[in-house]
Amino acid sequence: MAASAPSTGGEPDPNNSTNLRPPGSSYDAWCGVAHGCTRKLGMKICGFLQKNNSLESSFRERSAKTLLDHQETRFRHTETDFSNLYARDLLPAKNGEEATMQFLLEVVDILTNYIRKTFDRSTKVLDFHHPHQLLEGMEGFNLELSDQPESLEQILVDCRDTLKYGVRTGHPRFFNQLSTGLDIVGLAGEWLTSTANTNMFTYEIAPVFVLMEQLTLRKMMDIVGWRDDEGDGIFSPGGAISNMYSVMVARYKYFPEVKTKGMCAAPRLVLFTSEHSHYSFKKASAALGFGTDNVILLNTDDKGRVIAADLEAKVIAAKQKGYVPIYVNATAGTTVYGAFDPINEIADICEKYNIWLHVDGAWGGSLLMSRKHRHKLSGVERANSVTWNPHKMMGVPLQCSAILVRERGLLEGCNSMCAGYLFQPDKQYDVTYDTGDKAIQCGRHVDIFKFWLMWKAKGTIGFEQHIDKCLDLAAYLYNKIKNRDGYKMVYDAEPQHTNVCFWFFPPSLRGLPDGKDKRERLHKVAPKIKAMMMESGSTMVGYQPQGDKVNFFRMVISNHAATRSDIDFLTDEIERLGQDL
Ligand SMILES: *Cc1c(COP(=O)(O)O)cnc(C)c1O
User: Fold this and answer.
1) Where do the segments described as Disordered lie (predicted)?
2) Euclidean distance between CA atoms 399 and 450, whole angstroms
């Protein structure tokens, strides 16, 4: 029993987390914990946040400054010889405080250097090496694990080199993934989260974070358009898992006995999703015992949007065979084309046949925050569940994904196991805040804080500007290349999201007659250009084939550091590298 454990913190610290003020100010919330936990490390970041927070009262600035001066005299960053220092010399070692502070300040130096260079366009996006090269070991950097402890000097080198051989996903010219960018406040949130190092399962051990999660989910559900008496949700380890939750909850809604009896308690169930939808629906079907054969793929138009009439025809056909249609996914922002399925038309069919409607907004859900673009999800409030990934379009550091469910009680009913050692019903507080039993996980990472902190720091309006800016950049790219020599769009229309899909024809291919030979050569162009980009480290963009279409570039923009000049750089680079292919 840990109930009466004495304080283990050593000397009492006046700046400890008892200072944590009510969540009225992000600066307070952050600094309350940061001061208590990491002193100068916390102060460094607080100072930065404070400089950027004009709302802070001068009183707080003064008191923080006094504190800073005090800390400065206690822990000045000194030239420390780490070659004779080891992990065992750090806290909780006796007299380990000085070594700990010097070590952490050194780490902060490494991180802040990396951050500075990430935003410097003269820095490479990556320093590419093949797996065998990294495995064989680079100068001073060896991945092997050793029996004997290595010095902190080596540990610092390892930190530096790990970043050196990685990919700068926050670089303004990194366009490879849907999650890009390095948000400074989000990063501060992630640092705090690791420092707090707690677990989301109960209010008991994550009181502030659990409330932040509830409050943020409510805000997201308001934005979706659900009534005050509707809506439930949880943050999950990514969109694929959020989508899996939606399938589980739908099955529980129609066949709750599957929870105890298994799939033999249900007839043959079928799910519907577009041929362009994310592969996570097939994964969920495999993992949950539906089987991938029972995922029926829907046809799309040339822009990648589901054809609603095809859904109805396939629902009728499935029923005629005696199958039970229970679930339809409509994607808001497909992964490749960025297409938005017509939610209202699909919702009509779901209502008519009593089928669960899920909206996969992992990529496009964030457009709900933009007054200009949210019409693309019109009808989303009719969905029974929605996936929304703040870690994609909103630039929240990985990972941060929410599953929202309109009907209350289903998540809990579907997943709860009431483990006696965590979810005791006779605690002294309102145990409805022990939300962890809604999850399929036991331990759950705190994904909420960085998102909450960014929302505080930017305001809803800041996310809106970020999203509008990225969509403007995509339109800029589209308008630039749609009629340009050597380019051809994969589908001919304004991009619906920030995805811009196109082929580049090197000069040697331009005069060739259409046909098999030209297609085969074109298929090899994007991978070759991409390989050269990675070798030179200048930029990164994705490519892929789709259906009967040969490899094309899929440009996506979610990085708030990207500007028109970076878009120009990308096309220049494609043209330069593709010149002689
Ligand atoms: C990225 C994506 C997912 C999966 O999200 P993760 O967070 O990577 O698991 C699901 N659906 C769509 C449409 C996506 O673009």
Assistant:
1) 1-21
2) 10
Extents of the domains making up the chain: 28-74, 82-168, 200-446, 456-578
Ligand 1 pocket member 538 (CB < 6 A): no
Per-residue pLDDT tens digits for 114-168: 999 999 999 999 999 999 999 998 888 999 999 999 999 999 999 999 999 999 9
Q: Which CATH class is domain 456-578?
A: alpha beta
Tokens of 68: 């800073």
141 contact partners, CB below 8 Å, separation of at least 6: 157, 158, 161, 164, 165
pLDDT digits (tens, 9 = 90+) for 24-77: 444 444 444 444 444 445 455 444 444 444 444 555 555 555 555 555 556 788
Q: So what's the architecture of 200-446 in CATH? A: 3-Layer(aba) Sandwich (3.40)
d(CA 357, CA 313): 17
- Residue 360 CB less than 6 A away from ligand 1: yes
Q: What is the pTM of this model?
A: 0.88
Cβ of residue 242 lying under 6 Å from some atom of ligand 1 = no
Nearest ligand 1 atom to the CA of 334 is 13
For ligand 1, pick from 180, 276, 277, 278 the residue to mutate: most ligand atoms within 8 Å of CB. Answer: 278
**Does the CB atom of residue 64 touch ligand 1 within 6 A?**
no
CB-ligand 1 contact for 239 (6 Å cutoff): yes
Pairing of strands 295-298, 385-388: unpaired
Ligand 1 within 6 A of CB of 401: yes
